[in-house]
């Protein structure tokens, strides 16, 4: 085990000292401008990135920045980027290009890029050469050093590119969370799996787990501030603890989180099918607080493709794990990820994926067109299929899945579920929206006083992506 994995108190304190130095600068700005320095943070990609952005916002807030929602009104703009798909990368380049004028108008403004995309040298080089409006670039390994890097930008006014740093765990950084009711808690970082299409192990480093006591301390503190639902995050939560100097595995950590008073629901993501254990399935079935939903990315329904993807399981092994989970939890909701159009995928191999969807009956499928990522093993494979062929397959898969999802949702009609109310529906101000423990979105007439409470709701109408319902009162039972 790498002894330098966990940053020392002194290393964290150094960054806190930089936050103090930044505070002095932002106070000076406020005095001369009559308003606080405003920062805008935009996040691409997964929940792990969202959680990183919460820490970035925490550091900015502590340093005296006002966090705002309007990009153009900001004195500092930061994009926390994602490298998993090309589309997200193109969007970042588009946004950065469009901000040239914003920067030229006032060179004192600061433009920052960080996250997975920046951990790739060829991207950082492109930014260095072609996007001179960018002041600071740093990768995922340097996240905890953000205060120090930002201080350099503000005090020296020169460009800084920081792509170095190793695999570390930094605890006790400030954080500003987006929502109070639900919270994401990262339990580990990085990935060791090297699926052939995926860039994550290259940009997030090797697997490393936070110590259980630090995770539990964070969850306890969240519970004390009114959080009811926790999602434990990691690229592969099932291998939590492996290679560490402590004994706890993921099933044990999950059990310990469930014991914390005030936490009512616990979710987790993402799981790798090869690592999901019987012990974990038993804990899921036993612990009432663990939501009865399992997201288990299968990626393809054909063994040759799975092997080419370096997924290290077969369709048969995947099905056996799903069946075991369903035996233990008959009402378990299932979701998965599918990559359509992996290099060399034939029509027959794609049909195997559809067969798998029909057989498993997933409640939700997150499907993606294969996106070639520089540096991965799959990027070197011949890819004879045209974009049109892949697009047609993608649409077909959506059609099949939408039918399955609607049918599964229709089985909810007439039944009563506890819904944790998240807020007012975006489309109807008289409706509240929340989720069942199987992660189904439920909309029903109600009022804001219900936010944060569990409300029994009878499902009246199923749609492909959500359910409609009405509040169920005890007196209804006698009608
Ligand atoms: S398990 Fe595979 S797909 Fe998931 S992050 Fe690791 S390499 Fe990428």
How does this structure look, described?
Helices cover about 35% and strands about 20% of the residues. The chain is globular. It is an alpha/beta fold. Helix 10 (about 280-285) runs parallel beside helix 12 (about 315-330). It contains 14 helices and 19 strands. It has helices at about 10-35, 45-60, 85-100, 100-105, 120-130, 145-155, 200-205, 210-225, 250-260, 280-285, 305-310, 315-330, 345-360, 385-410; strands at about 40-45, 65, 75-80, 110-115, 135-140, 160, 180-185, 190, 210, 230-235, 265-270, 295, 335-340, 365-370, 415-425, 430-435, 440-445, 455-460, 465-470. Helix 13 links the parallel strand 13 (about 335-340) and strand 14 (about 365-370). The structure holds iron/sulfur cluster.
Summarize the structure.
With 479 residues, the chain is an alpha/beta fold. It has helices spanning 9-33, 47-62, 86-98, 100-105, 121-130, 146-156, 200-204, 212-224, 250-258, 278-286, 303-308, 315-328, 347-360, 387-410, and strands at residues 38-43, 66-67, 76-81, 110-115, 136-138, 160-162, 182-186, 188-189, 208-209, 229-233, 265-269, 293-295, 333-340, 364-369, 416-424, 431-435, 441-445, 454-462, 467-471. It folds into four domains: 9-162, Rossmann fold; 180-288, Transcription Regulator spoIIAA, CATH 3.30.750; 292-410, Transcription Regulator spoIIAA (2-Layer Sandwich), CATH 3.30.750.200; 416-478, Beta Barrel (OB fold (Dihydrolipoamide Acetyltransferase, E2P)).
